[in-house]
What we know:
The mean pLDDT is 94. The chain has two domains: 3-67, no CATH class; 69-244, Rossmann fold (3-Layer(aba) Sandwich). It is of the alpha/beta class. 36% of the residues lie in helices and 18% in strands.
Amino acid sequence: MNVKDLYDNKASGTAVAFKIIDFFSHNDIDENIIKDLKKYYFGIGLINYVCDSIISGRTKNLKEGIEKHDKMAIEHAKPLFNDSVIGTISFSSQVLKAFISNREKIKSVYILESMPEREGIDFASLLVKNGIDVVLLHDASIYELSLNVDFCIVGSDTVAYNGGLIHKNGTYPMALSMKYFKKPFYSITISEKINRNFLESSYKNIKNHDWNIDIPYINRFFDYTPPDLIDYYINENGFVKPSDVNI
């Protein structure tokens, strides 16, 4: 593995974080590389946590601790599944594991396409291979999704200091629509994704990716969901209100 392999827009934040751990377990720590990775992946809390841990020398059982919390969060999510129709977006490894381990209690899953990388399609294909019924929708079809599901559950890229959520573009309107329909909206996460230095105003620093057009554009891959639109986070501690994530 070389440094270029650490820059991967299509991989999940967890997959990239584990790549970074593996890379620096076999190579000398370079603070300039770490600094650039934090800038490139700004808004992905687990990568920020892993980079800070490597710089500070807190690497013993780092990967194992993350995996342990991941399994605990998935276990805590089990009560949600009860012959349910569920909505989601993007490709969260935690959501995938939760769905597969509870497949017999899922009626169907509505998944947004998740532009521009369209990872929702890959997610849908994996669910189908695991025997889960899927309905795929364009990102603009959030009303249709919200009308048909019992609840939505998404992953997380960063849990902000105030309990807000940074996640794939489309998460905010999904949560807003669920609030209108008075249906629950959850995010499955781990405490390592909490960034106590991330404020709502930090959102503007998330990378604006290239878009091959000749007019001014904004092409961020993530949006911000305020804490009052989130019913609960589910992490290694169980169901946690957004106001309590930093306690």
